[in-house]
Amino acid sequence: MRFYLTTPIYYVNSTPHIGHAYTxxxxxxxxxxxxxxxxxxxxxxxxxxxxxxxARVAADQGLTPREYTDAIVGAWQELPRRLNATxxxxxxxxxxxxxxxxxxxxxRIFDNGREDxxxxxxxxxxxVGCEAFKTEDELVDGRCPDHGxxxxxxxxxxxxxxxxxYQDELLRLYDERPHFVLPQFRYNEARSFIxxxxxxxxxxxxxxxxxxxxxxxxxxVAYVWADALVNYLSALSYAPGENLQRFWxxxxxxxxxxxxxxxxxWPALLVAAGYEPPRQLFVHGxxxxxxxxxxxxxxxxxxxxxxxxxYGADAVRFWCARQVSFGQDGNxxxxxxxxxxxxxxxxxxxxxxxxxxxMIARYRDGTLKDTPGPGAIDAEGLRGALVERLDxxxxxxxxxxxxxxxxRLNQQVEVSAPWELAxxxxxxxxxxxxxxxxxxxxxAVAVAVSPYLPETAPRILExxxxxxxxxxxxxxxxxxxxxxxxxxxxxxxxxxxxxxxAA
Length: 503
Ligand code: MSP
Hints:
Elements: E1 2-11, H1 18-36, E2 40-48, H2 52-60, H3 65-82, E3 89-92, H4 96-110, E4 117-127, E5 132-134, E6 152-161, H5 167-176, E7 181-182, H6 184-195, E8 201-202, E9 204-205, E10 213-214, E11 217-222, H7 224-228, H8 231-238, H9 244-247, E12 251-255, H10 259-272, E13 280-284, E14 287-289, E15 292-293, H11 304-311, H12 313-323, E16 330-332, H13 334-364, H14 379-391, H15 395-416, H16 418-421, H17 428-449, H18 456-463, H19 498-502
Parallel strand pairs: 1-2, 1-12, 2-3, 7-13, 12-13, 14-16
Antiparallel strand pairs: 4-5, 4-6, 6-8, 9-11, 10-11, 14-15
The protein binds 5'-O-[(L-methionyl)-sulphamoyl]adenosine.
């Protein structure tokens, strides 16, 4: 199986916040899971540079757009690195390979013999925040509901894409592929937008110079979305390796704010240019902080790198996957972060590893014998549940299945009370079986949780002196091997004072 997953490419008009980290983390969890299954994977993320709002921020700072984006791109490249994301490539839309591909892509549509691209004058309200035209009825009191700003009147002779001609073809695609967009309510939203009738849209800008020149009319540049969406294909054409044939079509991850561009415009553009539409799109919800949209002007931006500095990347990944059911909107607070860190990571999982390793060290001199009991968790059931849930992008549900196993192992410690068994020489075989089942369950849990906690999982295996492989078929009974030299493990999630997080 091939699995090519993308995140949106983020606008570089400011530095990353936790909302951007959220999508990148979710994507990395899914890709790591597919790698565990032995799939051939490609994971793409990157940045969207040719936006008018980027050019404006550059001008405010007295820089050319290119000087500005060259300066800020490092902060965006640092994001996946610090999150421990395993992207195969990081695209910048200012890459020469991308710009060339966008020109070829647009030329293919221009030349497709269906007059899909034509010239017209457009006049309308343009929201720079959205980088999109707005109809009167999309505005609330004359303002963009997403950005709270008044749009600007824009009137230009531009090149247009005949989206209206693709209505029937898109509806057919949606009918043939009932899981084309997930979750179901987002599929319905996209489909009813298409049913409502599609308007052609302008794919060029006459008054801007920051962007990819239109090949047949170099006085105009491509509209930022006509440039940005193409990244999902272009990256495959120049990232090292023969990737285009191998990995297209893609699975796209995005939030609801850019649903129409991805679920409607993009498949139509692809078909017009002679490419296959995406394989699937998953549209997740919004993280809100203290019930409010994350935004610079509200001053509630959480910098993911600050959280990583204090708690580590695994804790940030865990919180993002666990705190809000993936697909839904959710409110988050920093208190919930500390609370989950203490209760679930440090207590449930960290203590379990410490106790298990300490008991093997103490009662069996660090030796784990191959003496299985009845088994402490249903590891095969867990593996099936993970596959089933993650095939539906349910990263929160899959993590919950893992956590139930963690809790069951903790209960098992209490119920079997190895410290009592250790006092009674007649119960030596029983103690061996209990310790084996705990270690065995922990190994399966470590492999299962590795897409979420990629730093912690190998440490658990190492603490139990087990081989490091993370293949999903190790989520089964009797995955633990006999081992020696097991010592009490140092805490996986050391105590963090809430005050150091706020600082
Ligand atoms: N540049 C465009 C995307 C072009 S893709 C061809 C863009 N960039 S963006 O910087 O605004 O990023 C939007 C995306 O960032 C969302 O779709 C989502 O993936 C992520 N998020 C930004 N804020 C978010 C939250 N508060 N919550 C969840 N995800 C968020 O749109």
